[in-house]
Amino acid sequence: MSPLFLFLSFVALLSALGVVLAKNPVHSVLFLILTFFTLSGHYLLLNAQFLAAVNIIVYAGAIMVLFLFVIMFLNLNEETEPHKPALAKFAAAIAGGSLLLILVAALRNVSPAGYDPASFDSQIGMVDRLGMVLFRDYALPFELASILLLAAMVGSVMLGKRETGERNF
Amino acid sequence: MTLPALGWQGLVVLATFGISLLIATYCTYAERVIAAFLQDRVGPDRAGPFGLLQPLADAVKLFTKEEFFPAGANRALFVFGPCLAMITALMSSAVIPFGNFLKFGDTEIHLQGIEINVGMLYVFGIVSLGVYGIMIGGWASNNKFSLLGAIRAASQNISYELAMGLALIAVLMMSGTLSLREITLQQTHVGGGWHIGDIFTWNVFKQPLGFVIFIVCAFAETNRTPFDLPECETELIGGYHTEYSSMKMGLYLFAEYVNVFVATAVMSVLYFGGFNYPFQYEFLDFLTNKTSLSADWAHNIFVLMGVVAMFAKIFTGIFFFMWVRWTLPRFRYDQLMRLGWTILIPLAIFNILLTGGLITFGVIQ
């Protein structure tokens, strides 16, 4: 395990904890952005440059900006925070705890596969190789995903459209 | 004294950083001189010869002004906002190839911070992060008008990022690579001989529509007139930096100039051939065969001329940005949004279709 990996994992875990534990929702969002950055760092360590860049562009650059937008407008603070009943908190703790248990149980006996330096393909994960695989072996799932995205786009435009008679400003 | 290759590369990174800051500093001076020229005024002429020390005087003024924290502001994020704006502005120059490589015997020094094969995506990712500095600063000020200004700025940046990305896709389709260095190297004649078409290999001639979309989006992304809605002092409240003073304000304004520098550098690389210049191979041929220089030095002078050409293109771009600023009036916000969403994005999609069609039928490649 390289020191870089350890550092990235440390920051990733710390900022992920920050997302949950931060009192201020805006701080939570900023911690989440930091988490995405460390995940991109992990992608880079796995030699997936394209995935790392796209992760930054899509998640950190677009989706989280919209999160931040909404949270800043909502003006969440201590007084307006809804207090959940104790039962809901208890149920959430149990559900989260059992998920952790399953994950740990599933990954406990996994040993990293390692790689053979002699036959290792250094181009794996690069953008041209990714494109080859996507368009040759997975053309149909790729096209289906694009149709799904198109449908979502049309849906959001429909939702955002003003009905006749509504005010413009 | 010998430095390992990585050490030289580190020096190049440092130089890139220094040059970005220096050019941004003198952009503030150039902006005033050009404004004065276009408005038939004298401009700054007190500090030093021709007012050349004006940026220094400005820095001293900004540093010595009172640091002000608004009541109820989130102090940590209030300081973090301008830092983030500056960091994201400076990060993107790392992948820009300012020149080809210098040769000293066996060592080759690439005049580029770092060459990554997703260079264009890297620049695009950093640009999309630029919004955070503005949003965090606006929110942390604890002022409704700052927050509204930040939202206004962020909406503008997000809207124009889309059209910018779509314009870039057309370039990508032609170049087939995301590496900025390879995109530059493609924009020249391989071989030699006398070619009047030396500059017609630049992407701007193959992608005129894409270039127009890109430059309009670049104006919007760097918050420059005619799209400087994020900071229009006269019609709307100042914007996200209403509550800022002293050097924190300075950092926001400075980040804008770094962004202008990076935007023009990216534009030179993508559309104006980067470090290529007309008759470069004739020049190299002349240096190798007609002068007594060694092969290495002939190559190095040829490459350094390329760096000069690159910076000439960048400075022309920066001048164009300033020329436009002092010529065109500001858009209204709804006009800005309409231009972005209903004109530029459909045009960019049309450009992609057109490029795809032309590639399919073999007109261009």
UniProtKB/TrEMBL annotation, chain A:
Enzyme Commission identifier(s): 7.1.1.-
Transmembrane segments: 46-74, 86-107, 138-159
Membrane-related topology note: Multi-pass membrane protein
Location relative to the cell: Cell membrane
InterPro entries: NADH_UbQ/plastoQ_OxRdtase_su6, Nuo/plastoQ_OxRdtase_6_NuoJ
Broad class of enzyme this protein falls into: translocase
Catalyses which reaction(s): a quinone + NADH + 5 H(+)(in) = a quinol + NAD(+) + 4 H(+)(out)
Database matches in Gene3D superfamilies: NADH-ubiquinone/plastoquinone oxidoreductase chain 6, subunit NuoJ (1.20.120.1200)
Entry function: NDH-1 shuttles electrons from NADH, via FMN and iron-sulfur (Fe-S) centers, to quinones in the respiratory chain. Couples the redox reaction to proton translocation (for every two electrons transferred, four hydrogen ions are translocated across the cytoplasmic membrane), and thus conserves the redox energy in a proton gradient.
Entry protein name: NADH-quinone oxidoreductase subunit J
Protein's organism: Hymenobacter mellowenesis
UniProtKB/TrEMBL annotation, chain B:
Reaction(s) the record says it catalyses: a quinone + NADH + 5 H(+)(in) = a quinol + NAD(+) + 4 H(+)(out)
UniProt GO molecular function: NADH dehydrogenase (quinone) (non-electrogenic) activity
UniProt-listed Enzyme Commission number(s): 7.1.1.-
Subcellular location: Cell membrane; Membrane
Principal location class: membrane
Record's keyword annotation contains Secreted: no
InterPro entries xref list: NADH_UbQ_OxRdtase_su1/FPO, NADH_UbQ_OxRdtase_su1_CS
Pfam family for this entry, one: NADHdh
Transmembrane segments annotated in the record for this chain: 6-29, 77-99, 119-141, 162-180, 200-220, 257-277, 297-324, 336-364
Superkingdom of this protein's organism: Bacteria
Membrane topology of the entry: Multi-pass membrane protein
Top-level enzyme category: translocase
Assigned keywords, A-Z: Cell membrane, Membrane, NAD, Oxidoreductase, Quinone, Translocase, Transmembrane, Transmembrane helix, Ubiquinone
Family label: Belongs to the complex I subunit 1 family.
Quaternary structure and interacting proteins, as annotated: NDH-1 is composed of 14 different subunits. Subunits NuoA, H, J, K, L, M, N constitute the membrane sector of the complex.
Function: NDH-1 shuttles electrons from NADH, via FMN and iron-sulfur (Fe-S) centers, to quinones in the respiratory chain. The immediate electron acceptor for the enzyme in this species is believed to be ubiquinone. Couples the redox reaction to proton translocation (for every two electrons transferred, four hydrogen ions are translocated across the cytoplasmic membrane), and thus conserves the redox energy in a proton gradient. This subunit may bind ubiquinone.
Protein name from the UniProt record: NADH-quinone oxidoreductase subunit H
Organism: Hymenobacter mellowenesis
